[in-house]
Amino acid sequence: MFDNTCAHSFLTCSCTFVQTLANVYLALENDLEIIPVLNKIDLPAADPDRVAEEIEETIGLDCTDIIHASAKAGIGIEDIMEAIIQKVPAPTLAAPGAPLRALIFDSYYDPYRGVVVFFRIVDGEVKKGDKIRFLASGAEHEVTEVGVMQPQQVPVSTLQAGEVGYICGSIKDVQDARVGDTITLSTQYKAAAAEISKKNGNKPISEIEGALPIKPLPGYAESVPMVYCGLFPVDADDYEGLRDSLGKLMLNDAALSYEPEVSGAMGFGFRCGFLVSLRCPYEFLVLTWTYSQRKL
């Protein structure tokens, strides 16, 4: 995985189907470098010129040098790699001695290792044996494995600023590691908190208004659901399994939220929130197929 792909974007469009533009507009709003790529140009129905014109008209991107690619036919792969080197800026150098700050951009649940967190280090470094703290949740865990993707997971001794990798810490609670949260070292956080407390008459850090021992990386915010639905298992014995499945699903979908709900007719279940109504049937299918909750 490339060091700076978390901070920049690819606009990958199929010649036969253009996907949602929401992430493209989000990248434009944040002034990120966008590399336009036309995929699946080997298909008989492909019309690269028409799609490139639609991108220019819809988004306003200059598609003069748009890359034509096909993973199946091996077309354009070297051009994409070269575009990354030429257009994506290198990570900014971190200040010497800066405390660890790493941004979580993805995660998944492994039944043997717990939650595996993918992150990019902005400042500092992390290694096996360190005790880390998630700033949003306040949870702390000892690092049992740190590594990079090549593309399989390869353990390494240390990850430093500008690098992208994964981390394991026997994290069992899926709510501890949220996409968009900032990771720091527990020792650095406590040292900074003690210094702030000392300057404020030894007040507890929780009682000092606006106190931030380690400043979180910008961008993290809890999603605000706009659509709700009730989800109830047919068999009451499946309640715990459904709760665990929702928690695992929430790891990969920050827009999903849920809370326990009790219905006189349906029994115990959950009130699930989504950003848009189309997510509701999608999440239901994922729960049914991936987590084997077949009686909802």
Question: Can you describe what's shown?
Answer:
- The protein has 296 residues and is an alpha+beta fold.
- It has 3 domains: 9-87, 3-Layer(aba) Sandwich (Rossmann fold); 101-207, Elongation Factor Tu (Ef-tu), domain 3 (Beta Barrel); 227-290, 2-Layer Sandwich (Alpha-Beta Plaits).
- It is 24% helix and 28% strand.
- The chain contains 6 helices and 16 strands.
- It has helices spanning 22-29, 48-58, 77-87, 186-199, 239-252, 279-290, and strands at residues 9-14, 34-39, 67-68, 101-110, 114-123, 125-127, 131-134, 140-142, 145-149, 153-155, 158-160, 164-168, 182-185, 227-231, 257-263, 267-274.
- The strands form 4 sheets. The protein has an 8-stranded antiparallel beta sheet. It has a 3-stranded parallel beta sheet with strand order 1-2-3, sandwiched between helices.
- The longest helix is centred in the middle third of the chain and has 14 residues, at 186-199.
- The two termini are 38 Å apart.
- Residues 1-6 and 14-19 have low confidence and may be disordered.
List the total number of helices: 6
Gross CATH architecture of the largest domain: Beta Barrel
User: Which percent band covers the strand fraction?
Assistant: 25-35%
Within the CATH hierarchy, at the fold level, what is the topology of the largest domain? Elongation Factor Tu (Ef-tu), domain 3
Q: Could you say which overall geometry the principal axes of the C-alpha atoms support?
A: globular
Structural class: alpha+beta
What is the count of β-strands? 16
What is the gyration radius calculated from CA atoms?
22 Å
- Portion in helices: 10-25%
Mean pLDDT: 80
The CATH class of the largest domain = Mainly Beta
